[in-house]
Specification:
- By secondary structure, the chain is mainly α.
- It is built from 6 helices and 2 strands.
- It has a two-stranded parallel sheet.
- Helix 3 crosses helix 4.
- The longest helix is centred in the middle third of the chain and has 14 residues.
- The two termini are about 30 Å apart.
- One of its GO terms (molecular function) is nucleic acid binding.
- It holds the Pfam family DDE_3.
Length: about 110
C-alpha cells in the first residue's frame, strides 16, 4: 500500500489486541486515531454482512480453511455491482444522519 497509507479500523477488540498493535508498530503501519464508540460509517461492514450471508447459505458448508477461502473469493466476485454503487451513493445520507444524531446511533 505504500508508506503514505493509513490504516483505519473501527476499534473492535480484535483490531485493538496487543498482538495486532505490536504487528502494526513493527510493520511501521500508520494508524488513524478513531474515537471509541464512533458511529460506523464504513460501508465495507455492509459488504462483509452480505458476504457472510452468501457463504453461510452454501450447502454443504466449507470443509476447511482453504475451501472457505475459495467460497469467499467466489462469492465476492459474484456480488452485484449495484450493491457497491448503492453503498457508495449512501455516504452523503450516512454522514448527514451521523451529524444529525450528534455522533450517536444511526440506522446504518
Amino acid at each position: 500500500m505504500g508508506p503514505q497509507a493509513v490504516y483505519q479500523d473501527d476499534n473492535a477488540r480484535p483490531h485493538r489486541a496487543r498482538m495486532v498493535n505490536d504487528f502494526l508498530q513493527q510493520s511501521k503501519v500508520n494508524r488513524t486515531e478513531w474515537p471509541a464508540r464512533s458511529p460506523d460509517l464504513n460501508p465495507i461492514e455492509n459488504l462483509w454482512d452480505e458476504l457472510d450471508r452468501k457463504v453461510r447459505s452454501n450447502r454443504p458448508p466449507p470443509r476447511d480453511v482453504q475451501h472457505l477461502s475459495q467460497m469467499l473469493q467466489a462469492e465476492w466476485q459474484a456480488l452485484p455491482q449495484r450493491i457497491f454503487t448503492t453503498l457508495g451513493n449512501s455516504m452523503r445520507t450516512r454522514c448527514v444522519e451521523c451529524q444529525n444524531s450528534q455522533g450517536g446511533y444511526t440506522h446504518y
